[in-house]
Design goal:
Double Stranded RNA Binding Domain; 11 helices; three-stranded antiparallel sheet; 3 strands; 231 residues
Length: 231
Amino acid sequence: MSDIEKKLKLHRLAKGLGYQYRDIEHLKKALTHRSMGAKNNERLEFLGDSLVNFIIADALYHQFKNISEGDLSRIRAFLVKGETLAKIGKEYLLSDYLMLGPGELKSGGYRRTSIIADTVEAIIASVYEDGGLEACRALVMRLYHDRLQKLDPAMIGKDPKTRLQEVLQSNRQDLPEYTVISVNGPAHAQEFTVSCYVETLNRKFEAVATNRRKAEQLAAEEALSVLEGNL
């Protein structure tokens, strides 16, 4: 890929993020994993972690005026945890833009949750470096817009199976049915494939994990994501 093509690709991502960089090199650095050498995004990750915590804390403080400090902290932790950041990164197809060294590429680093989550933090910091705090705040609020709009404080901290059951019950719909489809591998390294059938969606959601409970939770989480999008 030529330098011009690489730069066009960066601008395409910036457009998707809704931010026009004064210096596109800030975004390039945010996408550069440490496996590429000394000029990487680790320092930006450090800064981005603090920025996203502050901006989300501020948003929650103003959005939920009657919630205690403990509950605000619990909700913030849920929103800024690695899994949530990685989901945001996947929504913007960040895997297509990551700059990884040969070793990370071979090991599938572009799919790794921790790398994608760290990159989201680095991008947040890159906008702060490029355009200041208000530009950074605007980006974070865009990234989290749907999650903040749909946020139900009572549901935060509950596991996916419990949340799925409560959502279905609140809408007077049948509860999900969990079925173990298969168990593979030796006793010390088994893999459980579990399905979660949600009648109101007329759909089965499958997940694989090292134990039945975890597989059920993963399947429930996938079902919940689809269900909440349809409500």
